[in-house]
Amino acid sequence: MFNKLKQFKDLRSQAKTLQGVLAEESVTVERNGVKIIMNGNLEVTTMIVNDKLPKANLENILKDLFNDAVKKTQKIMARKMQEMGGFPGLS
Questions:
Q1: What is the percent of the chain where pLDDT is above 70?
Q2: Containing domain of residue 64, as a range?
């Protein structure tokens, strides 16, 4: 039982370390004067909007850019996890 608790504590520590490493990463996506910058924790840190775009276009561009940023961030997350040796026991 204590072995499981130690494993859980180690896993939690590893997750916190990964979260800190990911917070330092940044992904930028841009299209038609609309720009989104997202950190590795999937938080949007900057959003610049071209207010001259029609609302329908702006909504579609924002949706597409956000999805692109999430995908790029997930790839960074996967790479960082591999670099850190993954999470043992989560396979």
A1: 92
A2: 2-83
